[in-house]
Amino acid sequence: MSTAQLALHDITKRYHDQVVLDRIGFTIKPGEKVGVIGDNGSGKSTLIKLIAGQERPDNGALTVVAPGGVGYLAQTLELPLDATVQDAVDLALADLRELEEGMRRAEAELAERPYQAGQDPELAGLLEGYAALVDRYQARGGYEADSRVEIALHGLGLPGLKRGRRLGTLSGGERQRLALAATLAS
Length: 186
Prior knowledge:
This protein is of the alpha+beta class. It has 6 helices and 3 strands. The chain has a 3-stranded antiparallel beta sheet with strand order 2-1-3, covered by helices on one side.
């Protein structure tokens, strides 16, 4: 018997006094394919945001098993038109960028410490923390993320898109393809 890839049990989500999702539940096993269909305002986007971790349920239990992480592509880019292509990529790769920052901080802290021969429990703890960050970063494919963005952009018909280009100079379709490429790379 396969374990659940995604399981929702008695999930409720409210916005102020309006109940959007009321005690919903289902299970999806690895390999199963599903679609979400419903009228406007029926809670489809809210459901997807819950699954992607963008929102939290008010009640119930949600289990998502996704070793490579969960990508979420919003209906519209949540950036101003004067933001750059690089800003959009960084937004989609935010969790990887956060890990990179943690690694850089740990590296700086380690570089500032004088070397002491023998046992140094504090240094051992710093090294252990750094190794854990590197392991998480590697498991998520952090070192290849920017190349995956370029490959996805090429495959979606936007090869060579300059990272400094303003989003306002892109068509709506180009902005969506950029967001999709970055989400796929994440």
